[in-house]
Write a structure and sequence with these properties.
Bound molecules: zinc ion
InterPro entries (chain B): Znf_put
Distance between the termini of chain B: 50 Å
CATH architecture of the largest domain in chain A: Orthogonal Bundle
Structural class of chain A: mainly alpha
CATH class of the largest domain in chain A: Mainly Alpha
Organism (chain B): Marinomonas sp. (strain MWYL1)
CATH superfamily of the largest domain in chain A: Winged helix-like DNA-binding domain superfamily/Winged helix DNA-binding domain
Radius of gyration of chain B: 15 Å
Strand content of chain B: under 5%
Protein name (chain B): Putative zinc-finger domain-containing protein
Oligomer: heterodimer
Number of strands of chain A: 0
Chain lengths: 209, 63
């Protein structure tokens, strides 16, 4: 996309400024790529999805004037592209075929967190999290969040991101990934248990100490 | 009476499906007396909100 093309028929629209702001677009692209790569492990496919999402946004740019709205919108286009890719990828990497991964994840984590009688181990009881909203502003927080996502076993990460990032519903995930509803729910539970622990250990508690 | 192990699972599943009336009662009774599980429930919601705002996170230089 050259600047010459950009200015042809839309010069009066405030929305065009979004694409003319090279710094904004570059940052957005980087962020989108990071998001896509988390979910689509094939880097080339992830880059293609980002490219296509940007292009669709460009083609329909006259609908958008504000940068903030633009960002949400372009990400929603990207999400749909990623969902398409994951559907195509299904045969190769359905979650049912992925490893749960080593270390404390499934039963082992649950045994570690809870006493035999089913109550929390004393040291593992969830602590109060102070003002997560404050954390959201913080770039360092998102680095921790990424690291915690990355640390999830592949199967947990894939299903968690389908649910929470791509906002796919249960029947769709189960169909796509060949998992039962109860197995999906258990996997999401374990993913959240792990993510919760990771965030508490590396962010919420650390801040206090 | 359910234990923390079941309570935490319900607190997660609550985000994915509608709990049955019986589950809701059991869970409410448990969280009424169990602070850690109450925290856990709030944190499950925080994690959902954080995931939603993931794509909206701003860089510090971008006001
Ligand atoms: Zn409890």
């Amino acid at each position: 996309m050259s600047n010459a093309n950009l200015s042809v028929e839309m010069d009066s629209s405030a929305a065009v400024n979004v694409f003319q702001d090279a710094v904004f677009i570059e940052e957005l692209r980087t962020q989108m790529l990071k998001f896509a790569k988390l979910q689509v492990r094939d880097n080339q496919l992830a880059e293609a999805a980002v490219q296509e999402a940007m292009f669709s946004a460009y083609q329909n740019i006259d609908r958008f004037a504000r940068q903030a709205a633009f960002k949400t919108w372009v990400f929603s286009i990207l999400k749909n592209k990623i969902i398409d890719l994951l559907r195509k990828e299904k045969r190769h990497t359905a979650a049912s075929q992925l490893e749960e991964g080593p270390n404390l994840s499934g039963e082992a984590l649950i045994e570690h967190l809870f006493e035999e009688n089913g109550h929390w181990q004393k040291d593992e009881r969830p602590k109060k999290w102070d003002q997560p909203e404050h954390g959201v502003e913080n770039e360092h927080f998102w680095r921790i969040f990424d690291a915690c996502l990355d640390a999830l076993p592949a199967k947990y990460g894939r299903l968690f991101m389908m649910r929470e990032f791509l906002e796919m519903d249960t029947p769709e995930i189960c169909h796509n990934e060949d998992v039962s509803v109860s197995s999906l729910n258990v996997t999401l539970y374990r993913a959240r248990l792990r993510l919760r622990e990771c965030l508490e250990d590396h962010w919420f508690q650390k801040e206090k100490s | 009476m359910i234990k923390c192990k079941q309570a935490t699972q319900m607190l997660s599943e609550k985000l994915d499906r509608t709990l049955s009336a019986k589950e809701k009662i059991n869970l409410a009774m448990h969280t009424a007396i169990c602070t850690p599980c109450r925290q856990f429930g709030k944190q499950m919601e925080t994690i959902r909100e954080l995931s939603k705002s993931y794509t909206k996170a701003k860089k510090p230089d971008e006001k």
